[in-house]
């Protein structure tokens, strides 16, 4: 299903796109034309279930591996179809799981309790339906395009309101595009979801490099600033000349770097989980009482809750072997964070349905992205995931149940144009997934000032 | 099996005979059975019924019951099946070990494990030693116990760490017990006790929290007493050094001195200036470890169950988790196999896999969290051997401050974290030299 056009022609088209983007003229039409033409060319092929690429070291038994189609600078329509063999293999592995002994504690203090792990896996094996989320995804316009040498997957839904504000939403770890599926409708079609036409967004939701259906980097260097650059290129390629960016977790890192880089067209950013590590205390007396809770949160994170980050930042490949080979291991590596970081009284299912958690977990499993997703920590956790002074307008929503909710004073000291700050009483780290309505309300309210 | 508790301990003179008698009698009773290959498999209420090949350890009593290793064939078949159906991540984007075990290296090890490695050989080696299990503080503890033919031999308990095991010591046991056949003199002889830490190898997995190094140290003291040893010494590296240091603090009756091949001698507050070259080198090495090499440590110290769940289900995951440390912590110039053979590494890795002790072994970090390099002052005699490729090399100046009776200090030219495993001959020489002055 290769496009007959030459690379030179593709390059030229890409340059045309860039030209269109610079003038800011009829971007929507361009991307629509591209969409329609490429959809016709690709005719629904997405993940190639036939024609498996077997690595030199791969054994012949690895028929269930997925292979992503190659990308060019074109924006090429993409659909998800996971080979049945991969789903069968997953079930087989779940049925053959070997378990450790029960934890010697009565809570989550040593990680996912055995009983909880086994219950989740039992549901995954016997009741969970990947084809459901696949058809949800395939009901959305999905694309892949090559940016900076890497194939990037993204969802792109345009509003019917031509004046809608384009927004790029970036997930983190262990999240994915799954986090945003429930907010796409309300953001793009506000009048059908309790909002007004002038609250509409055109929505772009990419997968980070090494995550989901984006390519896995084959070389080091995909640090947050590079991803931020790529996102700006993506928005330009889509023809957007005035847009905003949003993110939490690593997505907040990417969005913050975009604000730092100030690509042309980026008007403002919104962060849940702003990267506001404590600035030096302004007065000799040290931090105020109001700053203490956030300091305590960071202390607890460092001493008791950052093991995953430490290993991902230093030995992502070693960790990746266990998680790539064991769906149970992959599931618990993620499930632990759903429990720890969402707004719940003990059970993450209070705030995110088991199906939604498994949508996210299954996406990691089926794309074999344990190592590649962990690598973002290796690339950036120590160096780029840091408090940065930003001159671009910044909006912040602190969701109460997140593991880190910095005080506004740190925002004031860090962002020269902090135009919106709100404490949201419900929801946590996975804000859009936990509280889609509140998340949408935050974006509508904050970005009203940017339109 | 109703030997009066502790009666064998009362007179040191009869210890040998007591434990021998016990060995013979218990062996007769158990008929050589040890790991129950058949018989009742305890199936957890939540466990699916398919899990037939589980290893089950026999219940331990306060007797030292002989034990032999026989892993059910179904376990070995299951391992092989998992190895050949392993699903791999993509190749690392670096040309070295900086992101962990390179894909080509783990695939090579995994292929060897599936095709060439022979667990039965390792099992035969283990079974060539007298092995026992006994209940200490409510937990079944496995240990190798080889007495010297020299009655005046010095009893020693050798404690492994993570990701080590009793396999580290197999090459040194006979030279220690039988020095005259191994280049030493009768005066160098030891009676050797090599226990597996709780949650490791063929020791039980603690079902409750609380098994920190102090509790383990107390159990070791009880073990030595149970074996009838009235005057003995202790040795360890890694967590074994943690346990041995704890023994040095506790000073149980009978403990005459300790030897460490990794000494935790950091001061409470490290001076910001005036450090000697050796001190600075130790501080720098510890800092590099802390920032670049402690991911496994922090994960195991905080979420052992989560990482354990992954490693329990994937032998390649378990292998990589350990292989990485063999590469990082042994003395070699780029080829870990010049320090330890594939068979040696896989003996240790297989033991972790077959006993399903990824989570339970990781828990020792959780139990002792936060662990530091500040071991504190010890007034019992202490000997230290510094191997050059240790995570940090303990400076003698700090050891002299912490150890009021520093009876032995040596810095060796070769070897690393797994001293006995890598350099068995040098390790034996160190113990002989160190403990000369403590022999009665």
Model description:
The complex is a heterodimer of chains A (451) and B (440). With 451 residues, chain A is an alpha/beta fold. Helices cover 43% and strands 12% of the residues of chain A. Chain A has 17 helices and nine strands. Chain A has a nine-stranded mixed sheet, sandwiched between helices. The two termini of chain A are 41 Å apart. The N terminus of chain A is likely disordered. With 440 residues, chain B is an alpha/beta fold. In chain B, strand 8, helix 14 and strand 9 form a beta-alpha-beta unit. Chain B is globular and about 55 Å long. The two termini of chain B are 33 Å apart. The N terminus of chain B is likely disordered. At the A-B interface, helix 4, helix 9, helix 10, helix 11 and helix 12 of A face helix 2, helix 3, helix 9, helix 10 and helix 11 of B.
Order of helices and strands of chain A: HHEHHHEEEHEHEHEHHHHHHEHEHH
- Strands of chain B, total number: 9
Helix content of chain A: 40-55%
**Rg result of chain B:** 21 Å
Our estimate of the beta-strand percent of chain A is 5-15%
Amino-to-carboxy terminus distance of chain A: 41 Å
Range of strand content of chain B: 5-15%
**Greatest interface by residues involved:** A-B, 67 and 70 residues
Classify the helix fraction of chain B into a percent range: 40-55%
Average pLDDT over all residues of chain A: 88
- Main sheet record of chain B: 9 strands, mixed
| Unreliable parts of chain B | 1-52
């Amino acid at each position: 299903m290769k496009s007959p056009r030459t690379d030179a022609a593709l390059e030229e088209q890409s340059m045309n796109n860039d030209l269109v983007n610079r003038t800011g003229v009829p971007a929507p039409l361009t991307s629509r034309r591209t969409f329609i033409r490429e959809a016709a060319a690709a005719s629904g092929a997405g993940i190639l279930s036939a024609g498996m690429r077997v690595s030199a070291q791969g054994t012949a038994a690895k028929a269930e591996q997925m292979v992503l189609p190659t990308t060019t600078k074109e924006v090429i329509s993409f659909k998800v179809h996971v080979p049945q063999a991969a789903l069968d293999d997953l079930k087989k592995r779940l049925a053959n799981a070997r378990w450790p002994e029960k934890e010697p504690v009565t809570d989550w203090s040593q990680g996912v309790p055995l009983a909880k792990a086994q219950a989740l896996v039992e549901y995954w094996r016997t009741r969970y339906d990947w084809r459901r989320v696949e058809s949800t995804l395939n009901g959305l316009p999905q694309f892949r395009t090559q940016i900076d040498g890497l194939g990037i997957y993204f969802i792109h839904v345009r509003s019917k309101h031509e004046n809608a504000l384009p927004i790029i939403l970036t997930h983190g770890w262990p999240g994915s595009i799954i986090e945003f599926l429930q907010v796409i409708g309300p953001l793009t079609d506000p009048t059908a979801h309790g909002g007004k036409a002038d609250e509409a967004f055109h929505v772009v939701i990419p997968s980070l490099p090494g995550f989901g259906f984006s390519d896995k980097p084959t070389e080091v260097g995909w640090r947050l600033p590079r991803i931020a650059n790529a996102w700006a290129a993506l928005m330009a390629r889509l023809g957007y000349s005035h847009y905003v960016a949003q993110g939490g977790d690593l997505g907040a890192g990417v969005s913050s770097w975009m604000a730092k880089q100030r690509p042309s067209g980026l008007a403002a950013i919104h962060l849940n989980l702003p990267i506001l590590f404590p600035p030096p205390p302004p007065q000799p007396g040290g931090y105020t009482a109001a700053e203490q809770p956030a300091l305590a949160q960071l202390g607890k994170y460092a001493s008791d809750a950052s093991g995953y980050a430490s290993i991902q930042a230093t030995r992502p490949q070693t960790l990746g072997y266990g998680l790539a080979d064991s769906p149970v291991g992959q599931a618990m590596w993620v499930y632990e964070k759903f429990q720890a970081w969402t707004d719940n009284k003990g059970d993450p299912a209070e705030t995110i349905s088991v199906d939604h958690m498994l949508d996210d977990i299954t996406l990691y499993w089926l794309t074999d992205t344990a190592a590649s997703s962990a690598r973002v920590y290796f690339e950036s956790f120590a160096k780029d995931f840091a408090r940065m002074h930003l001159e671009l307008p910044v909006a912040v929503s602190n969701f109460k149940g997140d593991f880190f909710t910095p005080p506004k004073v740190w925002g004031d000291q860090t962002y020269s144009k902090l135009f919106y700050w709100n404490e949201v009483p419900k929801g946590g780290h996975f804000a859009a997934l936990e509280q889609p309505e509140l998340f949408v309300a935050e974006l509508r309210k904050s970005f009203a000032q940017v339109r | 099996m109703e030997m009066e508790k502790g009666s064998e301990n009362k007179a040191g003179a009869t210890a040998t005979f007591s434990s021998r008698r016990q060995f013979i009698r218990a062996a007769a009773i158990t008929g050589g059975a040890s790991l129950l290959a058949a018989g009742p498999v305890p199936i957890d209420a939540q466990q699916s019924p398919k899990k037939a090949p589980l290893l089950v350890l026999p219940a331990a009593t306060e007797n030292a019951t002989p034990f032999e290793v026989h892993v059910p064939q179904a376990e070995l078949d299951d391992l092989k099946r998992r190895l050949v159906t392993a699903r791999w991540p993509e190749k690392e984007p670096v040309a070295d070990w900086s992101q962990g075990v390179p894909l080509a290296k783990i695939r090579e090890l995994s292929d060897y494990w599936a095709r060439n490695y022979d667990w039965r050989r390792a099992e035969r080696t283990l079974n060539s030693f007298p092995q026992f299990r006994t209940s200490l503080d409510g937990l079944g503890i496995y240990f190798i116990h080889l007495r010297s033919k020299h009655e005046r031999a010095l009893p020693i308990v050798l404690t492994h760490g993570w990701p080590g095991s009793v396999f580290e010591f197999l090459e040194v046991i006979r030279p220690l017990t039988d020095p005259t056949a191994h280049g030493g003199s009768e005066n160098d002889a030891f009676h050797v006790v090599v226990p597996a830490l709780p949650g490791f190898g063929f020791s039980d997995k603690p079902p409750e929290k609380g098994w920190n190094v102090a509790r383990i140290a107390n159990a070791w003291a009880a073990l030595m007493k149970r074996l009838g040893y009235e005057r003995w010494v202790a040795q360890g590296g890694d967590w074994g050094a943690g346990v041995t240091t704890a023994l040095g603090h506790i000073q149980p009756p009978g403990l005459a001195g300790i030897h460490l091949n990794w000494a935790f001698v950091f001061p409470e507050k490290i001076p910001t200036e005036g450090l000697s070259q050796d001190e600075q080198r130790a501080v720098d090495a510890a800092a590099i470890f802390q920032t670049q090499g402690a991911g496994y440590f922090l994960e195991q110290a905080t979420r052992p169950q989560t990482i354990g769940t992954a490693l329990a289900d994937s032998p390649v995951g378990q292998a990589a988790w350990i292989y990485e440390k063999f590469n990082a912590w042994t003395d070699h110039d780029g080829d870990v196999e010049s320090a330890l053979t594939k068979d040696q590494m896989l003996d240790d890795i297989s033991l972790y896999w077959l006993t399903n002790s990824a989570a339970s072994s990781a828990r020792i970090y959780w139990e002792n969290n936060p662990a530091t390099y500040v071991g504190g002052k010890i007034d019992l005699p202490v000997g230290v051997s510094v191997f050059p490729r240790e995570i940090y090399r303990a400076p003698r100046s700090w050891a002299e401050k912490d150890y009021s009776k520093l009876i032995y200090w040596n810095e060796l030219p070769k070897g690393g974290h797994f001293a006995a495993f890598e350099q068995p001959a040098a390790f034996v020489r160190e113990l002989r030299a160190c403990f000369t002055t403590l022999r009665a």
